[in-house]
Design goal:
Largest sheet: 7 strands, mixed
CATH class: Alpha Beta
Oligomer: single chain
Structural class: alpha+beta
Strand order of the largest sheet: 1-4-5-6-7-9-8
Number of helices: 4
Distance between the termini: 26 Å
Order of helices and strands: EHEEEEEHEHEHE
Radius of gyration: 15 Å
Shape: globular
CATH architecture: 3-Layer(aba) Sandwich
Helix content: 25-40%
Length: about 160
Amino acid sequence: MKIVPNNELPKHMMTDFFAKHWGSTEMVISSGIFHYDELDGYAALDDDGEIQGCITYVIDGQECEIISLDSIIEKRGIGTALLQQVKVTAKQTHCQRIKLITTNDNVHAMEFYQKKGYQFTELFPNAVEKARRMKAEIPEKAENGILIQDEILFSKVID
């Protein structure tokens, strides 16, 4: 696995990856509307140069916000490696904290981030309902049967 800045890849690779795995290249969350293929980030590539995972982020002052993290193959360290690379970048740019938002249905993400030392910081009740008004393709219910309705902020102080 090789980690590379996403801006070193042809833009269509990132656009295609996000369209396939997120349904579009746009993310609507409490902190704003983001276009994945225009954000800073990193991609994990396999030996054939295919994207196996991707992370995007925004740095604002002393905070780094992770906008998306995807790993095609679970339990191989791809997400962990991408998260670590963003932490290195955040430290280099003098960030004090890394934060991210996930939704209430994403129990896998909540488990992953807590194992990495992130803490539940804030709850935004019914935030997905507001986001759905701007991005209608956000489903009402997740594959696990949980209604998608709230956003949860996780954060970690950079050590």
